[in-house]
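Q: I'm building a small set of examples for a reading group on sequence design. Run inverse folding on the following structure and report the sequence directly after it, with nothing in between.
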């Protein structure tokens, strides 16, 4: 539990800074346009800002998790060098951490630990490659959604629109048609 808290505190800046940068990179015109169309601030954030900031946010998160996966020094520093061969049944049970296991097995002089060390390193590498591939997939998926929105052509059309000002009807049967235009940011 302590090791998880230490890694979480070390990883948070690696995640928070890219998230802030991604949120600041969303053009103000997106926010202003959503607010001008009548969306609330919460709707603007969750329907417009967050989806456009998602690629940067996901990249920062996956990089932070990858960093936490490989961190051995903080775990060794706080004393997590015990070998525990019992499978934990709850998150609070003692367990061995793979980077620490690699460290302990590589220090062992017995020949049998060479294969275990190699296998553990390969597992860590495959997991890291999987996480990075997943991050690239998600980033590309969210970037494509944003790119589709930029190239979208819109046409506005309304018929028989009546506008009321309080109890009084201000406009009667308005027909409006705007030509097709490209959406620009």
């Amino acid at each position: 539990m302590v090791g998880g808290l230490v890694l979480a505190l070390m990883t948070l800046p690696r995640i928070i800074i890219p998230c802030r940068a991604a949120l600041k990179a969303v053009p103000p015109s997106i926010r202003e346009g959503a607010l001008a169309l009548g969306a609330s601030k919460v709707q603007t954030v969750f329907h417009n800002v967050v989806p456009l900031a998602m690629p940067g946010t996901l990249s920062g998160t996956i990089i932070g998790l990858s960093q936490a996966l490989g961190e051995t020094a903080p775990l060794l520093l706080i004393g997590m060098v015990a070998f525990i061969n019992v499978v934990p049944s709850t998150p609070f049970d003692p367990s061995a951490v793979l980077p620490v296991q690699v460290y302990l097995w590589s220090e062992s002089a017995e020949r049998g630990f060479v294969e275990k060390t190699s296998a553990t390193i390969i597992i860590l590498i495959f997991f890291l490659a999987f996480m990075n591939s997943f991050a690239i997939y998600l980033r590309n998926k969210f970037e494509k959604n944003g790119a589709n929105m930029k190239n979208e052509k819109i046409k506005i059309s309304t018929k028989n629109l009546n506008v009321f000002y309080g109890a009084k009807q201000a406009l009667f049967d308005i027909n409006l048609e705007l030509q097709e235009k490209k959406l620009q940011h």
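The two ends are 46 Å apart (CA to CA).
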